[in-house]
Amino acid sequence: MIPFEPIRLFAFGGFNVPIVISLLIIGGGMLWLLIRSLKAKEVDRRIVFVFIFAAVSAPLLFEITFDETATPIVKGVFEKIENMPERSRIVIAFDFDPAMAPEVQPMANAVIRHALAKNHRLIFISLWATGQALMDKTISEIIPAEFPQKQDGIDYVSLGYKAGNEGVLNVIVSNVKKMFPTDVNGVPLTDIAIFNGVRSMKDVDMVMAVGGGKPGPKEWVLFVGDAPGGPPVAVGVAAVVAPQMYPYYPKQVLGILGGIKGAAEYESELLHNYPRFAEQDTPGLRMMGPQTLAHVVIMAFIIFGNLAFFIGGRHKEKRL
Amino acid sequence: MDISNFLAAVLTLGIFSFLYKDNPVYRACEAIFVGVSAGYWAIVFFFDNLQKKFWEGVFPPDGSAGDHLLWFGAILGVLMLFRLSSKIGWIARWPLAFIVGATAGLYMITYFVSNAMNQVADTMLSLIVVNDVTGSIIWTQTIGALVVAVGVISGLVYFFFSKEHKGVFGATAKVGIWFLMITFGASFGYTVMSRMSLLIGRMSFLFRDWLGLIG
Lengths: 320, 215
What we know:
Strand content of chain B: under 5%
Strand content of chain A: 5-15%
Number of helices of chain A: 11
Helix content of chain A: 40-55%
Helix content of chain B: over 70%
Structural class of chain A: alpha/beta
Number of domains of chain A: 2
Oligomer: heterodimer
Shape of chain A: elongated
Shape of chain B: extended
Order of helices and strands of chain B: HHHHHH
Low-confidence stretches of chain B: none
Largest sheet of chain A: 6 strands, parallel
Radius of gyration of chain B: 28 Å
Distance between the termini of chain A: 57 Å
Mean pLDDT of chain A: 89
Mean pLDDT of chain B: 92
Distance between the termini of chain B: 16 Å
CATH topology of the largest domain in chain A: Rossmann fold
CATH architecture of the largest domain in chain A: 3-Layer(aba) Sandwich
Protein backbone atom coordinates (compact mmCIF):
# COMPACT_ATOMS: atom_id res chain seq x y z
CA MET A 1 0.00 0.00 0.00
CA ILE A 2 1.21 3.48 -0.80
CA PRO A 3 0.85 5.97 2.05
CA PHE A 4 -0.76 9.22 0.93
CA GLU A 5 2.03 11.73 0.65
CA PRO A 6 2.27 14.59 -1.83
CA ILE A 7 5.43 14.64 -3.89
CA ARG A 8 7.88 17.49 -3.45
CA LEU A 9 10.79 18.39 -5.69
CA PHE A 10 12.83 19.33 -2.63
CA ALA A 11 12.31 16.79 0.14
CA PHE A 12 14.07 16.61 3.50
CA GLY A 13 16.20 19.66 2.74
CA GLY A 14 17.66 18.10 -0.42
CA PHE A 15 16.58 16.98 -3.87
CA ASN A 16 13.93 14.31 -4.19
CA VAL A 17 16.18 11.95 -6.13
CA PRO A 18 13.57 9.82 -7.98
CA ILE A 19 11.67 12.76 -9.40
CA VAL A 20 14.85 14.64 -10.29
CA ILE A 21 16.20 11.59 -12.17
CA SER A 22 12.86 11.20 -13.98
CA LEU A 23 12.77 14.86 -14.92
CA LEU A 24 16.39 14.84 -16.10
CA ILE A 25 15.91 11.81 -18.34
CA ILE A 26 12.62 12.98 -19.79
CA GLY A 27 13.63 16.66 -19.92
CA GLY A 28 16.97 15.91 -21.58
CA GLY A 29 15.32 13.76 -24.20
CA MET A 30 12.68 16.40 -24.85
CA LEU A 31 15.39 19.02 -25.36
CA TRP A 32 17.08 16.77 -27.91
CA LEU A 33 13.75 16.36 -29.66
CA LEU A 34 13.15 20.12 -29.66
CA ILE A 35 16.52 20.75 -31.32
CA ARG A 36 15.83 18.01 -33.84
CA SER A 37 12.38 19.42 -34.58
CA LEU A 38 13.77 22.92 -35.10
CA LYS A 39 16.25 21.52 -37.58
CA ALA A 40 13.19 20.22 -39.46
CA LYS A 41 14.26 16.60 -39.02
CA GLU A 42 11.54 13.97 -38.84
CA VAL A 43 10.87 12.36 -35.47
CA ASP A 44 9.89 8.70 -35.66
CA ARG A 45 6.55 8.02 -33.98
CA ARG A 46 8.26 5.29 -31.93
CA ILE A 47 10.36 7.97 -30.24
CA VAL A 48 7.11 9.51 -29.02
CA PHE A 49 6.05 6.11 -27.63
CA VAL A 50 9.37 5.75 -25.78
CA PHE A 51 8.81 9.11 -24.08
CA ILE A 52 5.27 8.22 -23.08
CA PHE A 53 6.57 4.89 -21.74
CA ALA A 54 9.20 6.70 -19.66
CA ALA A 55 6.71 9.30 -18.45
CA VAL A 56 4.33 6.57 -17.28
CA SER A 57 6.92 4.13 -15.91
CA ALA A 58 9.06 6.50 -13.85
CA PRO A 59 6.29 7.74 -11.52
CA LEU A 60 4.95 4.18 -11.19
CA LEU A 61 8.34 2.70 -10.26
CA PHE A 62 9.34 5.58 -7.99
CA GLU A 63 5.81 5.73 -6.55
CA ILE A 64 5.40 9.44 -7.20
CA THR A 65 1.99 10.79 -6.19
CA PHE A 66 0.53 14.28 -6.02
CA ASP A 67 -1.75 15.94 -3.53
CA GLU A 68 -5.28 16.45 -4.83
CA THR A 69 -7.96 18.81 -3.62
CA ALA A 70 -11.58 17.97 -4.35
CA THR A 71 -13.24 20.42 -6.73
CA PRO A 72 -16.89 21.44 -6.12
CA ILE A 73 -18.12 19.03 -8.80
CA VAL A 74 -16.57 16.08 -6.90
CA LYS A 75 -17.31 17.51 -3.48
CA GLY A 76 -21.00 17.58 -4.40
CA VAL A 77 -21.04 13.77 -4.49
CA PHE A 78 -18.96 13.43 -1.33
CA GLU A 79 -21.09 15.84 0.67
CA LYS A 80 -24.33 14.21 -0.44
CA ILE A 81 -23.18 10.82 0.86
CA GLU A 82 -21.71 12.46 3.96
CA ASN A 83 -24.86 14.37 4.87
CA MET A 84 -27.56 11.79 4.11
CA PRO A 85 -29.16 10.23 7.20
CA GLU A 86 -27.72 6.86 8.24
CA ARG A 87 -29.23 3.77 6.59
CA SER A 88 -30.04 5.70 3.41
CA ARG A 89 -30.29 3.47 0.35
CA ILE A 90 -27.74 4.11 -2.39
CA VAL A 91 -27.84 2.31 -5.73
CA ILE A 92 -24.36 1.67 -7.15
CA ALA A 93 -24.47 0.88 -10.88
CA PHE A 94 -21.50 -1.01 -12.33
CA ASP A 95 -21.90 -0.27 -16.04
CA PHE A 96 -18.41 -0.94 -17.29
CA ASP A 97 -16.04 -3.66 -18.45
CA PRO A 98 -12.46 -4.66 -17.61
CA ALA A 99 -11.11 -2.34 -20.32
CA MET A 100 -12.66 0.67 -18.58
CA ALA A 101 -12.00 -0.61 -15.06
CA PRO A 102 -8.58 1.06 -14.44
CA GLU A 103 -10.32 4.39 -14.80
CA VAL A 104 -13.64 3.93 -13.04
CA GLN A 105 -13.06 1.08 -10.58
CA PRO A 106 -11.21 3.42 -8.15
CA MET A 107 -14.31 5.65 -8.05
CA ALA A 108 -16.57 2.73 -7.23
CA ASN A 109 -14.20 1.53 -4.50
CA ALA A 110 -13.95 4.97 -2.87
CA VAL A 111 -17.71 5.58 -2.95
CA ILE A 112 -18.46 2.11 -1.54
CA ARG A 113 -15.99 2.64 1.32
CA HIS A 114 -17.43 6.06 2.08
CA ALA A 115 -21.05 4.92 1.98
CA LEU A 116 -20.44 1.89 4.20
CA ALA A 117 -18.41 3.97 6.65
CA LYS A 118 -21.45 6.27 6.90
CA ASN A 119 -23.62 3.20 7.57
CA HIS A 120 -25.68 3.58 4.40
CA ARG A 121 -27.22 0.60 2.62
CA LEU A 122 -26.03 -0.32 -0.86
CA ILE A 123 -27.88 -1.87 -3.78
CA PHE A 124 -25.55 -3.07 -6.55
CA ILE A 125 -26.83 -3.39 -10.08
CA SER A 126 -25.33 -3.78 -13.56
CA LEU A 127 -26.65 -3.21 -17.06
CA TRP A 128 -23.42 -4.61 -18.54
CA ALA A 129 -22.82 -8.35 -18.67
CA THR A 130 -19.16 -7.68 -17.92
CA GLY A 131 -20.11 -5.52 -14.95
CA GLN A 132 -21.40 -8.35 -12.79
CA ALA A 133 -18.03 -10.10 -12.45
CA LEU A 134 -16.37 -6.80 -11.52
CA MET A 135 -19.18 -6.07 -9.07
CA ASP A 136 -18.83 -9.49 -7.40
CA LYS A 137 -15.05 -9.04 -7.18
CA THR A 138 -15.42 -5.59 -5.63
CA ILE A 139 -17.95 -6.75 -3.07
CA SER A 140 -15.89 -9.79 -2.08
CA GLU A 141 -12.65 -7.80 -1.82
CA ILE A 142 -13.89 -4.75 0.09
CA ILE A 143 -16.79 -5.69 2.32
CA PRO A 144 -15.63 -8.85 4.20
CA ALA A 145 -12.13 -7.44 4.76
CA GLU A 146 -12.95 -3.86 5.70
CA PHE A 147 -16.54 -4.04 6.93
CA PRO A 148 -16.90 -7.57 8.38
CA GLN A 149 -20.00 -6.62 10.36
CA LYS A 150 -21.99 -5.75 7.21
CA GLN A 151 -24.48 -8.42 6.15
CA ASP A 152 -25.72 -9.39 2.72
CA GLY A 153 -29.39 -8.49 2.37
CA ILE A 154 -29.38 -6.11 5.34
CA ASP A 155 -26.55 -3.69 4.62
CA TYR A 156 -25.96 -4.43 0.97
CA VAL A 157 -27.39 -6.52 -1.82
CA SER A 158 -26.36 -7.36 -5.36
CA LEU A 159 -29.10 -7.58 -7.97
CA GLY A 160 -26.59 -8.67 -10.60
CA TYR A 161 -26.76 -8.08 -14.32
CA LYS A 162 -29.96 -7.74 -16.28
CA ALA A 163 -30.09 -7.72 -20.08
CA GLY A 164 -32.26 -5.06 -21.69
CA ASN A 165 -30.15 -1.92 -21.55
CA GLU A 166 -32.16 1.27 -21.00
CA GLY A 167 -35.35 -0.79 -21.20
CA VAL A 168 -34.42 -2.14 -17.75
CA LEU A 169 -34.18 1.41 -16.38
CA ASN A 170 -37.49 2.31 -17.96
CA VAL A 171 -39.11 -0.52 -15.98
CA ILE A 172 -37.32 -0.26 -12.62
CA VAL A 173 -38.08 3.44 -12.39
CA SER A 174 -41.64 2.34 -11.69
CA ASN A 175 -41.23 -1.28 -10.50
CA VAL A 176 -37.98 -2.91 -9.44
CA LYS A 177 -39.41 -6.38 -8.78
CA LYS A 178 -40.80 -6.63 -12.29
CA MET A 179 -37.28 -6.66 -13.70
CA PHE A 180 -35.44 -8.10 -10.68
CA PRO A 181 -37.72 -10.61 -8.93
CA THR A 182 -34.70 -11.95 -7.02
CA ASP A 183 -31.22 -10.84 -6.07
CA VAL A 184 -28.13 -12.36 -7.68
CA ASN A 185 -28.31 -15.35 -5.31
CA GLY A 186 -31.92 -16.13 -6.17
CA VAL A 187 -33.41 -14.69 -2.94
CA PRO A 188 -36.80 -13.05 -3.65
CA LEU A 189 -36.70 -9.28 -3.18
CA THR A 190 -39.69 -9.57 -0.84
CA ASP A 191 -37.40 -11.47 1.59
CA ILE A 192 -34.60 -8.89 1.50
CA ALA A 193 -34.66 -6.29 4.28
CA ILE A 194 -33.18 -3.49 2.16
CA PHE A 195 -36.20 -3.64 -0.13
CA ASN A 196 -38.78 -3.12 2.62
CA GLY A 197 -40.72 -0.10 1.40
CA VAL A 198 -38.94 0.01 -1.94
CA ARG A 199 -41.18 -0.43 -4.93
CA SER A 200 -39.29 1.54 -7.52
CA MET A 201 -36.08 3.49 -8.02
CA LYS A 202 -37.98 6.54 -6.81
CA ASP A 203 -37.86 5.04 -3.30
CA VAL A 204 -34.07 4.97 -3.06
CA ASP A 205 -32.16 7.97 -1.73
CA MET A 206 -29.43 8.26 -4.33
CA VAL A 207 -27.99 6.62 -7.42
CA MET A 208 -24.26 6.50 -8.06
CA ALA A 209 -23.85 5.44 -11.68
CA VAL A 210 -20.32 4.36 -12.55
CA GLY A 211 -19.42 3.65 -16.17
CA GLY A 212 -18.72 5.32 -19.46
CA GLY A 213 -20.50 3.52 -22.26
CA LYS A 214 -24.07 2.92 -23.28
CA PRO A 215 -26.15 2.14 -21.32
CA GLY A 216 -24.39 3.93 -18.55
CA PRO A 217 -24.44 7.02 -16.33
CA LYS A 218 -26.13 9.16 -18.98
CA GLU A 219 -29.03 6.71 -19.27
CA TRP A 220 -29.39 6.68 -15.46
CA VAL A 221 -29.78 10.47 -15.59
CA LEU A 222 -32.26 10.40 -18.49
CA PHE A 223 -34.43 7.47 -17.43
CA VAL A 224 -34.17 7.53 -13.62
CA GLY A 225 -32.88 10.86 -12.34
CA ASP A 226 -35.03 12.99 -14.62
CA ALA A 227 -38.15 10.84 -14.17
CA PRO A 228 -40.86 12.57 -12.11
CA GLY A 229 -39.95 11.90 -8.47
CA GLY A 230 -36.65 10.30 -9.50
CA PRO A 231 -33.78 10.06 -7.00
CA PRO A 232 -30.72 12.31 -7.12
CA VAL A 233 -28.10 10.86 -9.46
CA ALA A 234 -24.34 11.25 -9.23
CA VAL A 235 -22.04 9.89 -11.89
CA GLY A 236 -18.53 8.50 -12.06
CA VAL A 237 -17.49 8.36 -15.69
CA ALA A 238 -14.55 7.54 -17.89
CA ALA A 239 -12.84 10.78 -18.84
CA VAL A 240 -13.73 10.39 -22.50
CA VAL A 241 -17.42 10.69 -21.57
CA ALA A 242 -17.06 13.40 -18.92
CA PRO A 243 -17.56 16.38 -21.31
CA GLN A 244 -20.92 14.91 -22.34
CA MET A 245 -22.02 14.85 -18.70
CA TYR A 246 -21.07 18.43 -17.78
CA PRO A 247 -24.25 20.02 -19.25
CA TYR A 248 -26.29 18.02 -16.72
CA TYR A 249 -24.42 19.52 -13.76
CA PRO A 250 -25.57 20.79 -11.26
CA LYS A 251 -29.33 20.54 -11.77
CA GLN A 252 -29.65 17.06 -13.27
CA VAL A 253 -26.64 15.41 -11.62
CA LEU A 254 -25.34 16.02 -8.10
CA GLY A 255 -21.74 15.82 -9.15
CA ILE A 256 -19.35 14.20 -11.60
CA LEU A 257 -16.25 12.14 -10.97
CA GLY A 258 -14.56 12.61 -14.34
CA GLY A 259 -11.84 10.10 -15.15
CA ILE A 260 -8.97 9.20 -12.90
CA LYS A 261 -8.67 12.84 -11.77
CA GLY A 262 -12.19 12.68 -10.33
CA ALA A 263 -11.36 9.38 -8.62
CA ALA A 264 -8.16 10.84 -7.14
CA GLU A 265 -10.04 13.88 -5.83
CA TYR A 266 -12.66 11.66 -4.19
CA GLU A 267 -9.98 9.44 -2.64
CA SER A 268 -8.19 12.52 -1.35
CA GLU A 269 -11.39 13.86 0.24
CA LEU A 270 -12.06 10.44 1.76
CA LEU A 271 -8.57 10.18 3.24
CA HIS A 272 -8.74 13.66 4.70
CA ASN A 273 -12.07 12.95 6.36
CA TYR A 274 -11.57 9.28 7.21
CA PRO A 275 -7.96 8.58 8.28
CA ARG A 276 -8.98 4.95 8.89
CA PHE A 277 -8.66 4.40 5.12
CA ALA A 278 -5.03 5.59 5.04
CA GLU A 279 -3.82 2.01 4.80
CA GLN A 280 -6.07 1.16 1.86
CA ASP A 281 -4.86 1.28 -1.70
CA THR A 282 -5.64 4.54 -3.50
CA PRO A 283 -5.28 3.73 -7.21
CA GLY A 284 -6.69 7.10 -8.26
CA LEU A 285 -4.01 9.06 -6.42
CA ARG A 286 -1.34 6.55 -7.43
CA MET A 287 -2.23 7.00 -11.11
CA MET A 288 -2.10 10.79 -11.00
CA GLY A 289 1.74 10.78 -10.96
CA PRO A 290 2.11 9.02 -14.33
CA GLN A 291 -0.97 10.83 -15.61
CA THR A 292 0.52 14.25 -14.85
CA LEU A 293 3.94 13.46 -16.30
CA ALA A 294 2.42 11.92 -19.45
CA HIS A 295 0.32 15.06 -19.93
CA VAL A 296 3.41 17.26 -19.55
CA VAL A 297 5.17 15.21 -22.22
CA ILE A 298 2.18 15.42 -24.59
CA MET A 299 1.88 19.18 -24.06
CA ALA A 300 5.60 19.51 -24.74
CA PHE A 301 5.20 17.58 -27.99
CA ILE A 302 2.36 19.87 -29.07
CA ILE A 303 4.50 22.93 -28.31
CA PHE A 304 7.53 21.44 -30.10
CA GLY A 305 5.45 20.59 -33.13
CA ASN A 306 4.09 24.12 -33.34
CA LEU A 307 7.50 25.70 -32.77
CA ALA A 308 9.00 23.58 -35.53
CA PHE A 309 6.06 24.46 -37.77
CA PHE A 310 6.35 28.22 -37.31
CA ILE A 311 10.09 28.72 -36.73
CA GLY A 312 10.91 26.26 -39.50
CA GLY A 313 8.81 28.43 -41.83
CA ARG A 314 6.56 25.58 -42.90
CA HIS A 315 3.47 27.71 -42.27
CA LYS A 316 4.46 29.76 -45.34
CA GLU A 317 4.42 26.73 -47.61
CA LYS A 318 1.54 26.67 -50.07
CA ARG A 319 -1.01 23.95 -49.54
CA LEU A 320 -3.58 22.47 -51.85
CA MET B 1 4.21 -17.62 -10.69
CA ASP B 2 0.49 -17.14 -11.22
CA ILE B 3 -0.21 -18.61 -14.67
CA SER B 4 -3.15 -16.26 -15.32
CA ASN B 5 -0.96 -13.21 -14.61
CA PHE B 6 1.76 -14.62 -16.84
CA LEU B 7 -0.69 -15.18 -19.71
CA ALA B 8 -2.20 -11.72 -19.26
CA ALA B 9 1.28 -10.16 -19.26
CA VAL B 10 2.34 -12.02 -22.43
CA LEU B 11 -0.87 -10.93 -24.20
CA THR B 12 -0.41 -7.34 -23.02
CA LEU B 13 3.16 -7.24 -24.33
CA GLY B 14 1.98 -8.87 -27.54
CA ILE B 15 -0.53 -6.07 -28.08
CA PHE B 16 2.07 -3.45 -27.17
CA SER B 17 4.40 -4.90 -29.81
CA PHE B 18 2.22 -3.22 -32.45
CA LEU B 19 3.71 0.09 -31.33
CA TYR B 20 6.97 -1.00 -32.94
CA LYS B 21 5.35 -2.40 -36.07
CA ASP B 22 2.69 -4.85 -37.18
CA ASN B 23 3.81 -8.42 -36.48
CA PRO B 24 2.44 -11.98 -36.20
CA VAL B 25 2.53 -11.94 -32.38
CA TYR B 26 0.31 -8.87 -32.32
CA ARG B 27 -2.09 -10.41 -34.80
CA ALA B 28 -2.25 -13.62 -32.75
CA CYS B 29 -3.02 -11.66 -29.57
CA GLU B 30 -5.65 -9.63 -31.42
CA ALA B 31 -7.27 -12.81 -32.76
CA ILE B 32 -7.31 -14.35 -29.27
CA PHE B 33 -8.97 -11.21 -27.89
CA VAL B 34 -11.63 -11.18 -30.59
CA GLY B 35 -12.28 -14.92 -30.21
CA VAL B 36 -12.50 -14.84 -26.41
CA SER B 37 -14.79 -11.77 -26.51
CA ALA B 38 -17.10 -13.41 -29.05
CA GLY B 39 -17.24 -16.61 -27.00
CA TYR B 40 -17.89 -14.71 -23.77
CA TRP B 41 -20.73 -12.68 -25.26
CA ALA B 42 -22.25 -15.74 -26.94
CA ILE B 43 -22.43 -17.56 -23.59
CA VAL B 44 -23.68 -14.49 -21.72
CA PHE B 45 -26.43 -13.84 -24.26
CA PHE B 46 -27.44 -17.49 -24.34
CA PHE B 47 -27.84 -17.81 -20.59
CA ASP B 48 -29.12 -14.31 -19.80
CA ASN B 49 -31.40 -13.69 -22.75
CA LEU B 50 -32.44 -17.04 -24.16
CA GLN B 51 -32.50 -19.09 -20.99
CA LYS B 52 -33.29 -16.67 -18.14
CA LYS B 53 -35.37 -14.11 -19.98
CA PHE B 54 -37.13 -16.12 -22.67
CA TRP B 55 -37.24 -19.78 -21.63
CA GLU B 56 -37.79 -19.22 -17.89
CA GLY B 57 -40.21 -16.40 -18.74
CA VAL B 58 -42.38 -18.59 -20.95
CA PHE B 59 -41.99 -21.69 -18.79
CA PRO B 60 -41.32 -20.41 -15.22
CA PRO B 61 -39.45 -22.99 -13.08
CA ASP B 62 -41.91 -22.44 -10.19
CA GLY B 63 -44.81 -23.59 -12.38
CA SER B 64 -46.59 -20.23 -12.45
CA ALA B 65 -48.24 -18.88 -15.61
CA GLY B 66 -45.76 -17.98 -18.32
CA ASP B 67 -45.54 -14.71 -20.19
CA HIS B 68 -46.40 -15.77 -23.75
CA LEU B 69 -45.79 -12.25 -25.10
CA LEU B 70 -42.13 -13.25 -25.05
CA TRP B 71 -42.80 -15.48 -28.08
CA PHE B 72 -43.21 -12.28 -30.08
CA GLY B 73 -39.62 -11.25 -29.25
CA ALA B 74 -38.35 -14.76 -29.95
CA ILE B 75 -39.96 -14.81 -33.40
CA LEU B 76 -38.50 -11.39 -34.20
CA GLY B 77 -35.10 -12.74 -33.12
CA VAL B 78 -35.44 -15.69 -35.49
CA LEU B 79 -36.49 -13.35 -38.31
CA MET B 80 -33.25 -11.43 -37.77
CA LEU B 81 -31.33 -14.55 -38.84
CA PHE B 82 -32.92 -14.39 -42.30
CA ARG B 83 -30.39 -11.76 -43.33
CA LEU B 84 -27.93 -14.63 -43.75
CA SER B 85 -29.88 -15.55 -46.88
CA SER B 86 -29.42 -13.42 -50.00
CA LYS B 87 -32.90 -14.33 -51.33
CA ILE B 88 -35.09 -13.74 -48.28
CA GLY B 89 -32.76 -11.43 -46.37
CA TRP B 90 -35.32 -8.64 -46.66
CA ILE B 91 -37.39 -10.33 -43.93
CA ALA B 92 -34.72 -9.26 -41.41
CA ARG B 93 -35.81 -5.67 -42.00
CA TRP B 94 -39.01 -6.28 -39.99
CA PRO B 95 -37.32 -6.94 -36.62
CA LEU B 96 -34.87 -4.12 -37.39
CA ALA B 97 -37.79 -1.78 -38.04
CA PHE B 98 -39.31 -2.86 -34.73
CA ILE B 99 -36.04 -2.18 -32.87
CA VAL B 100 -35.63 1.25 -34.49
CA GLY B 101 -39.25 2.17 -33.79
CA ALA B 102 -39.23 0.95 -30.20
CA THR B 103 -35.93 2.68 -29.41
CA ALA B 104 -37.08 5.94 -30.98
CA GLY B 105 -40.29 5.79 -28.98
CA LEU B 106 -38.42 4.99 -25.77
CA TYR B 107 -36.06 7.91 -26.19
CA MET B 108 -38.42 10.50 -27.67
CA ILE B 109 -40.01 11.75 -24.47
CA THR B 110 -36.91 11.17 -22.36
CA TYR B 111 -34.73 13.21 -24.68
CA PHE B 112 -37.33 15.91 -24.99
CA VAL B 113 -37.59 16.26 -21.21
CA SER B 114 -33.92 15.79 -20.25
CA ASN B 115 -31.98 17.15 -23.20
CA ALA B 116 -34.39 19.85 -24.37
CA MET B 117 -36.69 21.18 -21.64
CA ASN B 118 -34.40 20.66 -18.63
CA GLN B 119 -31.33 21.87 -20.49
CA VAL B 120 -33.10 25.05 -21.60
CA ALA B 121 -34.25 25.63 -18.02
CA ASP B 122 -30.71 25.01 -16.71
CA THR B 123 -29.30 27.55 -19.16
CA MET B 124 -31.61 30.33 -17.98
CA LEU B 125 -29.45 31.53 -15.11
CA SER B 126 -29.35 34.84 -13.29
CA LEU B 127 -26.55 36.77 -14.91
CA ILE B 128 -25.61 38.45 -11.65
CA VAL B 129 -25.46 36.07 -8.69
CA VAL B 130 -25.87 37.79 -5.33
CA ASN B 131 -25.21 36.39 -1.87
CA ASP B 132 -28.62 36.30 -0.14
CA VAL B 133 -27.16 37.13 3.28
CA THR B 134 -24.56 39.79 2.60
CA GLY B 135 -26.02 41.16 -0.63
CA SER B 136 -22.60 41.12 -2.30
CA ILE B 137 -22.00 39.78 -5.79
CA ILE B 138 -20.55 36.25 -6.00
CA TRP B 139 -18.08 36.89 -8.80
CA THR B 140 -17.14 33.30 -9.60
CA GLN B 141 -20.75 32.28 -10.17
CA THR B 142 -21.54 35.52 -11.98
CA ILE B 143 -18.66 34.99 -14.41
CA GLY B 144 -19.77 31.37 -14.87
CA ALA B 145 -23.32 32.48 -15.71
CA LEU B 146 -22.01 35.07 -18.17
CA VAL B 147 -19.80 32.50 -19.89
CA VAL B 148 -22.79 30.14 -20.23
CA ALA B 149 -24.97 32.93 -21.67
CA VAL B 150 -22.36 34.19 -24.14
CA GLY B 151 -21.36 30.64 -25.12
CA VAL B 152 -24.93 29.49 -25.79
CA ILE B 153 -25.94 32.60 -27.76
CA SER B 154 -22.77 32.79 -29.86
CA GLY B 155 -22.79 29.04 -30.45
CA LEU B 156 -26.37 29.19 -31.71
CA VAL B 157 -25.54 32.18 -33.93
CA TYR B 158 -22.67 30.22 -35.51
CA PHE B 159 -25.07 27.45 -36.52
CA PHE B 160 -27.59 29.92 -37.98
CA PHE B 161 -26.83 29.83 -41.69
CA SER B 162 -29.91 31.68 -43.05
CA LYS B 163 -28.12 35.01 -42.61
CA GLU B 164 -24.66 35.82 -43.92
CA HIS B 165 -21.98 35.89 -41.19
CA LYS B 166 -21.06 39.58 -41.50
CA GLY B 167 -20.82 42.57 -39.14
CA VAL B 168 -22.02 42.07 -35.56
CA PHE B 169 -23.64 38.78 -36.56
CA GLY B 170 -20.37 37.51 -38.03
CA ALA B 171 -18.36 38.66 -35.00
CA THR B 172 -20.77 36.82 -32.69
CA ALA B 173 -20.43 33.71 -34.85
CA LYS B 174 -16.63 33.97 -34.50
CA VAL B 175 -16.99 34.05 -30.73
CA GLY B 176 -19.15 30.94 -31.14
CA ILE B 177 -16.32 29.24 -33.08
CA TRP B 178 -13.93 30.02 -30.20
CA PHE B 179 -16.33 28.42 -27.73
CA LEU B 180 -16.61 25.36 -29.95
CA MET B 181 -12.82 25.10 -30.30
CA ILE B 182 -12.35 25.34 -26.54
CA THR B 183 -15.01 22.65 -26.10
CA PHE B 184 -13.27 20.36 -28.60
CA GLY B 185 -9.94 21.03 -26.87
CA ALA B 186 -11.39 20.11 -23.49
CA SER B 187 -12.89 16.96 -25.00
CA PHE B 188 -9.54 16.03 -26.53
CA GLY B 189 -7.80 16.62 -23.20
CA TYR B 190 -10.25 14.34 -21.44
CA THR B 191 -9.80 11.70 -24.17
CA VAL B 192 -6.02 11.81 -23.67
CA MET B 193 -6.53 11.39 -19.92
CA SER B 194 -8.86 8.45 -20.54
CA ARG B 195 -6.44 6.65 -22.86
CA MET B 196 -3.50 7.36 -20.55
CA SER B 197 -5.44 5.85 -17.65
CA LEU B 198 -5.81 2.61 -19.61
CA LEU B 199 -2.10 2.57 -20.40
CA ILE B 200 -1.24 3.27 -16.75
CA GLY B 201 -3.59 0.46 -15.72
CA ARG B 202 -1.74 -2.01 -17.95
CA MET B 203 1.70 -0.75 -16.94
CA SER B 204 0.68 -0.93 -13.31
CA PHE B 205 -0.40 -4.53 -13.88
CA LEU B 206 2.95 -5.39 -15.47
CA PHE B 207 5.06 -3.74 -12.76
CA ARG B 208 2.94 -4.72 -9.77
CA ASP B 209 1.05 -7.95 -10.42
CA TRP B 210 3.44 -9.58 -12.87
CA LEU B 211 6.95 -8.41 -12.03
CA GLY B 212 6.29 -7.40 -8.42
CA LEU B 213 8.48 -4.32 -8.81
CA ILE B 214 6.13 -2.07 -6.83
CA GLY B 215 4.23 -2.73 -3.64
